[in-house]
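Feature request, filed as a ticket because there's no other form

It would be nice if the structure record came with a short human-readable summary line next to the tokens. Right now we just get the raw output. Example of a typical job, pasted below so the devs can see what we mean:
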Amino acid sequence: MVESDANVDKVGEDGENSKNGFSELDGKIIRQVEYYFGDFNLLKDKFLQEQIKEDDGWVPLTILLKFNRLASLSKDPKVIVDALEKSSSGLIEISEGKDKIRRSPHVPIPEMNEDRRKELMERTVYCKGLPRDSKLNDLLEFFYKFGDIENVTMRSWHDKATKVWNFKGSVFVIFKSVEGADKFLKLESVKYNDSDEELIRKWQKDYIEEKRKERLEVRMKHSKKSKGQENKKSKVDSEGKSEEKEGSDAEDEGEDEEKEDSDGFATGTVVALAGLDSSIKWDNIKERIEEMGLPVAFIEYTLGDEVAFVRLANKDTASELAKLVAKEDNDNKIKIGDKELSLRVVEGEEEKTFLEKQKAELMKKRIAAQRRKGMNKKGRGKKNRGKWDNRKRRGTSPSGEPPSKVKAN
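Raw output as currently delivered:
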């Protein structure tokens, strides 16, 4: 049973829902049960899916009361039923004997396709500045005070040394409506409980775009530094002293780290996707992964192949992606388009070999670019035209198709 997120109906600060007249405990029970049968959990909860198959969707309350979060609210089936009868969502049906419940057949689960993902992103908010020791239940209690939400995802990173997942202090919050999300973002001030610090709040789509621009700036900065170093070596004054490059020493600090990020050769960054077909293009893969908040540096994939290798931009994010996928699907499958692809983290010697191959190919491209630059400086007279007229561009196939390996933007 996966218990990582929750659906939320708003309950007033006085413990009573002013609209429906139910207690704070009723509200918590409704939230938890509707989470179990909600759009997000039911798709990935294999145990509950098996239970639903046995009796036309009905699940005995005795089974549900084995779930820790619900049992922590009440172990009395009558209390659970009484609370659910006060819900106005129409999501849950109660059996005549009041000993079973099910998701209403009149409320089908939306298909998780590209349109659905885009629609979810339109009402998803990124929040940063939360305590690193936060628990999901505490975060849910905090966020549902601001309106109706469907889901809260805690963003984590994996510490390879300790093999522990750590909360980043940021979350993605999916509101039930765009208007609800917009209202939350327009609040003048939002602080977490007793904290004096303002939470950073923005649309998820804006957060992803900002990260994309940051990566681009790092690449451009590294490119400028590389060119500056080449000029520094080539420009020598009459006394044999090389010209100093403009800029302070501080500007060069962290250059090695930037190079690693720019070239994308940090470890813990490679995943393999299997089960692809010609309906999936490399930009579909890139967009799907970046929707989850993880920037992509490179995709090795030829249209029609069954396997693609994805290199992420930041160190140790491959395992983070695997965790995010596992939250959506217990079989470690990521849905791209209409396909469910298996995801595997590439580690050890396999990752080392892949990254070394990437470095070698990048070096070849740089050498080729330098040679072309040298040719351009010398100029192309009539003498050289003949040998270039019929030469194919490096990386072009005989059919004229583009190269199979594509660098992600």
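Something like this underneath would help us a lot:
The chain has three domains: 24-103, 114-206, 259-378+399-409.
Confidence is low (pLDDT under 50) at residues 1-18, 234-264, 395-401.
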